[in-house]
Amino acid sequence: CSRLACLTGPWPPLAMAPRVGFIGLGAMGGGMASTLASKGFKLKVFDMRAEAVEKLVKEGAEKAATVRECADNVDVLVVAVVNDKQVSSVLFDETTGAVSSGFQGTCVVCATVPPAFAEEAAAKVAKLGGSYVDAPMSGGTIKAAAGQLTFMVSAEAAVLERAKATLDAMGKVYVLGSKPGQGSSMKMVNQLLAGVHIATAAEAMALGAKAGLDTRQVFEIITSAAGNSWMFENRVPHMLDDDPTPHSAVDIWPKDLGIVMDESKRLGFPCPMAGQAMQQFLAARGLGLGSKDDSFVVKVYEALGGAKVARPMEGEKPAKKQKT
C-alpha cells in the first residue's frame, strides 16, 4: 500500500462476523450491501425505495421498516447516502435518527461530506454512545457489486478494528489517520481530480468535433496516447453514445466540487481548475441536465461551440462503462 497504512487480511469467520445494518441502497450502496449479503454477513437493510429493499431481501437480508430499526442490535451500521444533510438526518434526527436512541455500535459513513462535518459528526456519535468511521469510497458501481471499492478511512485504531471485517468485505481500505475528517479530505482530493478530468474530457472531445475530427477516432487515439485518463476512458463512451443513463449524475459535481472550493477557501489555497470545472457542471444543471449522466457536461461545450460530439454506432448497443 506504498506509504499509506492499509488494512489487510481476511474478515473473521462468519460465526465471528459482525451484525451489519445498511442504510442507502442506491447505485453504490446497493452493490455494497449485495456484496455483504453474498459473503454471508447477517445483514439488515433500509432504503426509501421498496424495490431496492426487496432486492436485498431476496439475497438474504432482513428488511428494516425504519432507519432506527435498521440500527437496532447491530454491531456496524453502514451509511451510504448522498451528502452531509442526509447523513445528519439518518443519524441524528431526534425522533427517527439511528444513533439518537442508545446506539452503541460503530457507524461507517461512506458518503462524500466536508471534512469538518465528519469530525463534528464523529464527536456527536461518540457523545451519544457510539463510534464513527469516516470512510468515503470510490470505484464505481461495478466495483461496488464486486467488493472491489477503495475506502479512504480515518478513525481511532480500536474503532477501525470493529469495522475491519465489514470494510474488508467491500473492498480495499486505506487508513489516512486516526482523526475523522482525514478520510474525507482524501476523498476531496480524489473528487477534485475526477471532476476536472470529466470536464476537460468533454472540452477536448468538443474541440475535436469543432475541428471536424471523427470523435470516435479521437477517442480511440487518445486512449492509446499520453492524454488519456481513467475518467476520459470511462466517460467519453457515454458522450459518444449520447447515453444519459445517470450512473453518476451531473448534480453530484456542484456538491463535491463545492466541498473542494469551500475547503480551499478555509485553507487559503487556490484551486482554480476545480472552480472552472464546477462552473461547467453548474452550466449543465442550468441546461436542465442535473439528473443526467455527468458525461452530459459535454452538452455545455456543444451548445457553446456548435459541434456535436455524439456519434452513436448504428446496430450496436451503447458501450457501458463503470462509474465512480
Short overview:
With 324 residues, the protein is α/β, with parallel strands linked by helices. It has helices at residues 27-38, 50-58, 67-71, 84-92, 115-128, 141-146, 157-170, 182-210, 215-222, 230-241, 252-267, 272-286, 298-305, and strands at 5-7, 20-23, 43-46, 62-63, 76-79, 106-109, 131-134, 137-138, 149-154, 171-177.
Structure description:
With 324 residues, the protein is an alpha/beta fold. Helix content is 48%, strand content 12%. It contains 13 helices and ten strands. The protein has helices spanning 27-38, 50-58, 67-71, 84-92, 115-128, 141-146, 157-170, 182-210, 215-222, 230-241, 252-267, 272-286, 298-305, and strands at residues 5-7, 20-23, 43-46, 62-63, 76-79, 106-109, 131-134, 137-138, 149-154, 171-177. The strands form two sheets. The protein has a six-stranded parallel β-sheet with strand order 4-3-2-5-6-7, sandwiched between helices. Helix 5 (115-128) links the parallel strand 6 (106-109) and strand 7. Helix 8 (182-210) packs across helix 10, helix 8 packs across helix 11 (252-267) and helix 8 (182-210) packs parallel to helix 13. The longest helix has 29 residues, at 182-210. It starts with a strand and ends in a 19-residue tail after the last helix. Residues 1-5 and 7-11 have low confidence and may be disordered.
